[in-house]
Amino acid sequence: MTRFVAPLFILAAAVVALVATPAEARIFGLDHRQLAAAAALVALLVSLTQGTRAADLARVLGSVAVWAVLIAALTGVYAYRFEASDFLGRLAGELMPSEPQVGQGGEVIVNRRLSGQFAVAAKVNGARVTFLFDTGASVIVLTAEDAARAGIGGRDLNYDVPVTTANGAALAAEIRLDTISVGPIVMHNLRALVARPGSLEESLLGMTFLEGLKSYGVERGRLIRTARRGGAAV
User: Fold this and answer.
1) Most CB atoms closer than 10 Å: which of 68, 125, 137, 218?
2) 231 has a pLDDT exceeding 50
3) 85-231 CATH fold
4) H or E segment at 179?
């Protein structure tokens, strides 16, 4: 019976401190919930170690420490579950700009890159092209390499449209895309530009595509786009 005296005293002292202190006040730097948890843990440790032989004390304390670390880790994972999900999503978006996810409502979801940008995997005239989501671009802009992959290019292009890129002012050629698709969202006959070779590093998914959507927005590090008429836009 005497082994419970010390733990009960610790718990009683904690209760007195909690009752005598206003709810918003902190005790030893802890709020009321933290103090109650700390008191319960200390009482448990005292109860487990009282009467324990010296040879077994290290084993008992080691087991308690392992459980404490596991509980703290699980609590941390739960508390920061949204941040962890966002980070993993950004990492996946950086390393594997794969086909966009499709939500239950038919919306297309793309994770943010670690750099803060959105890499959107699409198909232009059936050829795979990775775009940067760019609301600052008034039209879709293809790099010369992506345009060639989609069967667009050659001597037919007339680079007479002035544009501003990250590398400065440049000229681009105006074209029409037969089809461009992002997941289940498909659009036809869209105006676009092809940048002169060497003037653009990545193709841009601009407003000529975005204006054809029912809606688009960013929620918790994910770009969510919804098509008109259940998935296809023309």
Assistant:
1) 137
2) no
3) Cathepsin D, subunit A; domain 1 (2.40.70)
4) strand 168-182
